[in-house]
UniProtKB/TrEMBL annotation:
Transmembrane intervals: none
Entry-linked Pfam families: FMN_red
Protein name (database record): NAD(P)H dehydrogenase (Quinone)
Species per Swiss-Prot/TrEMBL record: Mycolicibacterium frederiksbergense
EC code(s) of this entry: 1.6.5.2
Keyword list, A-Z: Oxidoreductase
SUPFAM superfamilies given in the database record: Flavoproteins
Keyword Oxidoreductase annotated: yes
Ranges for domain Flavodoxin-like: 16-191
Coiled coil: none
Class of this enzyme: oxidoreductase
Record-level Gene Ontology MF annotations: NAD(P)H dehydrogenase (quinone) activity
Length: 213
């Protein structure tokens, strides 16, 4: 067995952290689906709600090979809760301690569009500021032809990450099954991409050090 992950674990079983904010539980349902998908992909998964991060949780995050960021869309962007978490990573951003880790994102809102693309853009920019490698959804758009339906994977037609629409009066267990499956797909994809990257790094180290100034 090769032990060469960021945290010394088996590279064939990358460590994936699902770190997310949910005000009312709907995005929690999706975070659990992302986590299940990452487990399907062979990853060791930790689910971290940003509202209750402990020192141990920050250590887990720092040791992860991949982070999948999730947030409800509030006011057309990431929630204040998620942004508060993001701003707590400023020192890590300055030191580059998350550099070359894998990242991806998912969001959820009430409206079918709901300006969720702005949220995914913010998550991707957050990852880029940390010099992380962003993984897209890897699915074509569903529900976009006469043969399609709301039960298609990626029914809302996003490319940058996974997006869900949940009726504002729905309970968390009423999140649309197609959105749950789309999030599950994202988790699995991130696990598999991270595994490929970890194995590749044993053959060809990443050019991860900035050029000396
Ligand atoms: C303060 C606030 C702002 C919201 N802004 C949006 C929005 O911009 N677009 C949208 O479609 N839904 C919006 N919603 C609806 C939520 O995105 C939706 O209810 C979502 O399922 C909440 O997820 P959560 O339970 O994980 O917090 C907003 C809800 C709240 C409370």
């Amino acid at each position: 067995m090769i032990h060469n992950g960021h945290n010394g674990t088996d590279i064939a079983a990358p460590s994936v952290a699902v770190v997310y904010h949910s005000g009312f539980g709907h995005t929690t349902t999706l975070a659990e689906a992302v986590a299940a998908g990452a487990r399907d992909g062979g990853a060791k998964v930790t689910v971290l709600p940003v509202a209750t991060m402990t020192d141990d949780d920050w250590d887990t995050l720092d040791g992860a090979d991949a982070m999948i960021f999730g947030t409800a869309t509030y006011m057309g962007n990431v929630s204040a809760g998620f942004q508060a978490f993001a701003e707590k990573t400023g020192r890590r951003c300055m030191t580059g301690s998350w550099r070359d880790k894998v990242a991806a994102g998912f969001t959820n809102s009430g409206a079918k569009s709901g300006d969720k693309l702005a949220t995914l853009n913010s998550l991707a920019i957050f990852a880029a500021q940390h010099h992380m490698h962003w993984v897209n959804l890897g699915l074509g758009p569903g529900w976009n032809s006469s043969a399609g339906s709301e039960h298609d994977l990626n029914r809302l037609g996003f490319w940058l990450g996974a997006a869900a629409a949940t009726d504002v009066d729905a309970d968390p267990d009423q999140v649309h099954p197609a959105d749950v499956q789309t999030c599950r797909h994202l988790g699995q994809r991130v696990a598999l991409v991270t595994r490929q990257l970890n194995i590749g790094r044993t053959l060809s180290p990443a050019a991860s050090t900035p050029a000396a100034s």
